[in-house]
Write a structure and sequence with these properties.
CATH class of the largest domain in chain A: Alpha Beta
Oligomer: heterodimer
Distance between the termini of chain B: 33 Å
CATH topology of the largest domain in chain A: Ribosomal Protein L30, Chain: A
Radius of gyration of chain A: 17 Å
CATH superfamily of the largest domain in chain A: Ribosomal protein L7/L12, C-terminal domain/Adaptor protein ClpS
Largest sheet of chain A: 3 strands, antiparallel
Number of helices of chain A: 4
Strand order of the largest sheet of chain B: 1-2-3
Largest sheet of chain B: 3 strands, antiparallel
Helix content of chain B: 55-70%
Helix content of chain A: 40-55%
Strand order of the largest sheet of chain A: 2-1-3
Number of strands of chain A: 3
């Protein structure tokens, strides 16, 4: 997902913050209408708990506590929602989870 | 028996004997072969259509082998969503998984071929390679677990306990089995179990090193860089 370009204007041009705020408002306005999607990671008997925690910290950048809580949820409840957002972003997350070797699916929050 | 990874000056270092390396490399080759076996999507013999369709994203068939389904899982219980996802991601996933298995096998076979078979030689994984190598080990363990019919965590733990903590003394496991076939089947199962356990030991110790290498503060998403 490309980052919003900011801070590249000539000195004295409009501060990047102002541009970002309106861009963010625009994105939020759009995502309010589109259905949100979730990436779900499922428990399996093979993947090590430490590896699952590593994936959540390394790929999603989650804190140790959050990654650990999600890993425990997967382990004890059989599944956990690990991310939510626009469909394209969630598809990318599920693809990454599959590459790590985790069992993951996507679903619409409406379903 | 192999020694797990530790953080050293040269990188993350494990110790393996030559036979251990060979059998792990052989298994990596087996999984590579499975990944290269792409089922034919086309169910007609019309060369014209085959030519026309070449290069167009064709539907990727859902694997029929249960181990392959662990490597290339369904992305949704909804068949339509799963099929579309497969069509757009599967060939890339096969390629990435194959690439890292090849690297893993090369790393294993890189050691001194003249070494004594009981001698433990260092296997060095540099931190930048640790993630793909851990992924390759995951894929190998997924395939072995399927072959061992490990369907729950206690079954997996039983294999680790049996293989990594052998019973004391030569009389601990009385050999009252009968018939050559049974012995052979057991021997194969024991071998697969041993490889599964060694890979578990190697991956767990590697992941411990990798966790220590992660920044402690929250870093935010790195989507799209995988």
């Amino acid at each position: 997902m490309p980052r919003l370009v900011h801070g590249q204007g000539a000195p004295g041009s409009e501060p990047a913050g102002g541009t970002l705020t309106s861009a963010e408002a625009h994105v939020q306005g759009r995502s309010a209408q589109a259905p949100r999607w979730q990436a779900v990671v499922w428990n399996d008997p093979v993947n090590l708990m430490s590896y699952v925690e590593y994936v959540f910290r390394s790929y999603f950048g989650y804190s140790r506590d959050k990654a650990n809580a999600l890993m425990n949820q997967v382990h004890h409840e059989g599944q956990a929602v690990v991310s939510a957002g626009a469909r394209e972003a969630i598809e990318m997350d599920v693809r990454a989870m599959h590459e790590f070797g985790l069992q993951a699916t996507l679903r619409s929050e409406d379903s | 028996m192999a020694r797990g990874f530790r953080i050293e000056q040269t990188g993350y270092v494990a110790l393996l004997t030559h036979p251990e390396r060979l059998i792990l490399a052989q298994l990596a080759g087996d999984v590579l072969e499975m990944l290269s076996d792409v089922p034919e999507a086309s169910d007609h013999d019309d060369e014209f259509f085959d030519g026309l369709l070449a290069g167009i994203s064709q539907p990727a068939l859902r694997p029929t082998d249960s181990a392959m389904l662990r490597l290339l899982p369904d992305a949704s219980p909804d068949d339509e969503v799963a099929e579309e996802f497969r069509r757009f991601t599967e060939s890339d996933l096969r390629r990435r998984k194959s690439e890292r298995l090849r690297t893993w096998a090369r790393l294993l076979l890189d050691a001194d071929q003249q070494a004594d078979s009981s001698e433990h030689l260092p296997l060095v994984v540099i931190p930048q390679q640790a993630e793909p190598m851990s992924g390759a080990m995951t894929d190998m363990r997924l395939v072995l677990a399927d072959r061992l019919e490990i369907t729950d965590e206690s079954a997996a733990e039983e294999v680790y306990a049996r293989m990594l903590e052998p019973a004391d003394g030569p009389d601990a496991q009385p050999d009252d089995r009968q018939g050559l076939d049974r012995d052979e089947a057991d021997a194969v199962r024991d071998l697969i179990s041993a490889v599964f356990a060694i890979l578990g030991l190697l991956q767990e110790s590697l992941v411990d090193c990798m966790l220590q290498g992660l920044p402690t503060e929250v870093t935010g998403k790195r989507r799209g860089t995988g």
